[in-house]
């Protein structure tokens, strides 16, 4: 623990991964665990980790990097935080993020932007940018992030680490502050695929406190980590390698395909024709859900309350105007508009129909192969400020990750070499519903 705290002291000033470092608490927890008779055979025993600041931890301020939640101290812990505590893992910091998980660069944090440990003039990705950066910078051994449209995989790709978005329903969302409930999933960000499987072992499983949690038998994900993938079918989607993809990202991906061939995998061409509409559908569905989920921040129940109000309505208005950042307000307005009568059928209902088509496309494609290989993101990490004034440009960063959330299926991002500037490139492997075993196996063989 001491070594990690020293490391945080060294690099945190440059990277800014954390909103809070829990040095004392972590040392006490580690000491207590050492002294009592807990089961010390758990592979995560005593391991320090970072917890994204939209995941509740009892007694520790949890803000989603938003002014509106300043001072909110949850009276309970998320199920994932409980699970990790039971395995002996120790939270060393609450990781920075884009406000309410809305963003792809961490620049929407209302507190400070996290920097990419590979080059601090660049973004770490988002919204789990703090979680990816603290792992990449060796401030912790692993972190938990959340992924609604790519927020685990895109920052993992930008920071050269492993990030997994599990199948919807595999990991409990209880205690995760909701952005878009039908898309959100918590998942691990780690240095390698073995760690990813170890963390997933702890956090996957049925939870009656989350009505969307799926009741299925527990698996040992480490048992799928074998190098032999002969005969495994890997799907390639031609459209995913088209326009807009940075040329050296394409090159690294093509090299990865060659590696898979040499390992005896069989390449299969598959089609995902409705993917073109995924981004539009995502921004309607996620904003609609966000506008409803974020209605609860009224200045009465949580955190921040504006001063100097005339009446109750004025209190709501002032609190929400001052408490939410620009991007969050944009999403609330988009969502409210898409759900309003007269527009509901034209936008929200259409987006749900597109969602069904996207899921059908994936089901078909994944009946022809075991996993689909794609880039995680069209580019490597961009410069701070480069896209922050153009939301549409920023949204395009999620073009390969968003369809996966819409379909509810699992996907992992793993490092796949460096671009010409020496920045990490990410490769995404997408699996069938509960096909974590296949993507972990394919990822491990490549590593
Ligand atoms: N970048 C996407 C967005 O801004 C995805 C966010 C996420 O997965 N939480 O909505």
UniProtKB/TrEMBL annotation:
Location of the Amidase domain: 1-440
Listed GO CC annotations: glutamyl-tRNA(Gln) amidotransferase complex
Disordered: annotated segments: 103-126
Keywords of this entry: ATP-binding, Ligase, Nucleotide-binding, Protein biosynthesis
Entry EC number(s): 6.3.5.7
Composition bias, Polar residues: 103-113
Active site residues per record: 52, 127, 151
GO MF term (any one): ATP binding
Keyword Nucleotide-binding assigned: yes
GO biological process, one term: translation
Catalyzed chemical reaction(s): L-glutamyl-tRNA(Gln) + L-glutamine + ATP + H2O = L-glutaminyl-tRNA(Gln) + L-glutamate + ADP + phosphate + H(+)
Annotated InterPro entries: Amidase, Amidase_CS, Amidase_dom, AS_sf, GatA
Subunit-level organization: Heterotrimer of A, B and C subunits.
Family: Belongs to the amidase family. GatA subfamily.
NCBIfam families: gatA (TIGR00132)
Protein role: Allows the formation of correctly charged Gln-tRNA(Gln) through the transamidation of misacylated Glu-tRNA(Gln) in organisms which lack glutaminyl-tRNA synthetase. The reaction takes place in the presence of glutamine and ATP through an activated gamma-phospho-Glu-tRNA(Gln).
Protein name in the entry: Glutamyl-tRNA(Gln) amidotransferase subunit A
């Amino acid at each position: 623990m001491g070594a990690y705290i020293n490391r945080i002291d060294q690099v945190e000033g440059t990277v800014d991964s954390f909103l809070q470092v829990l040095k004392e608490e972590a040392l006490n927890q580690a000491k207590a665990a050492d002294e009592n008779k807990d089961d010390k055979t758990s592979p995560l025993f005593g391991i320090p980790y970072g917890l994204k600041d939209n995941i509740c931890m009892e007694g520790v301020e949890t803000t989603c990097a938003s002014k509106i939640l300043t001072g909110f101290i949850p009276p309970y812990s998320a199920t994932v935080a409980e699970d990790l505590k039971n395995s002996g893992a120790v939270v060393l910091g609450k990781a920075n993020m884009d406000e309410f998980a809305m963003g792809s660069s961490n620049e929407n944090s209302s507190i400070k932007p996290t920097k990419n440990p590979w080059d601090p003039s660049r973004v770490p990705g988002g919204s789990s940018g703090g979680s990816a950066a603290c792992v990449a910078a060796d401030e912790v051994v692993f972190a938990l992030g959340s992924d609604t449209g790519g927020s685990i995989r895109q920052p993992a790709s930008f920071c050269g680490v492993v990030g997994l978005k599990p199948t919807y329903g595999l990991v409990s969302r209880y205690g995760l502050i909701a952005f878009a409930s039908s898309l959100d999933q918590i998942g691990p960000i780690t240095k390698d695929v073995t760690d990813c499987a170890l963390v997933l072992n702890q956090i996957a499983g049925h939870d009656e406190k989350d009505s969307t949690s799926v009741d299925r038998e527990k698996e040992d994900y480490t048992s799928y980590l074998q190098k032999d993938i002969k005969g495994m079918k890997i799907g390639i989607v031609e459209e995913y390698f088209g326009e807009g993809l940075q040329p050296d990202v394409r090159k690294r991906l093509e090299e990865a395909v060659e590696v898979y061939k040499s390992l005896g995998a069989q390449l299969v061409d598959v089609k995902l024709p409705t993917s073109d509409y995924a981004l539009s559908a995502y921004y309607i569905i996620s904003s609609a859900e966000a506008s409803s989920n974020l209605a609860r921040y009224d200045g009465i129940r949580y955190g921040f309350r504006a001063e100097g109000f005339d009446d109750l309505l004025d209190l709501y208005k002032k609190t929400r105007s001052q408490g939410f950042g620009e991007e969050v307000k944009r999403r609330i307005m988009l969502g409210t508009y898409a759900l309003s009568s007269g527009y509901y059928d034209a936008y929200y209902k259409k987006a749900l129909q597109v969602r069904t088509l996207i899921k059908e496309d994936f089901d078909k494609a994944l009946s022809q192969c075991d996993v689909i290989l794609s880039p995680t993101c069209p580019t490597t990490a961009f410069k701070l400020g480069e896209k922050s004034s153009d939301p549409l440009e920023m949204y395009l960063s999620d073009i390969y990750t968003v369809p996966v959330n819409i379909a509810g299926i699992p996907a992992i991002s793993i490092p796949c070499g460096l671009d010409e500037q020496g920045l990490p490139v990410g490769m995404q492997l997408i699996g069938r519903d509960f096909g974590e075993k296949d993507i972990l196996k394919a990822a491990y063989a490549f590593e």
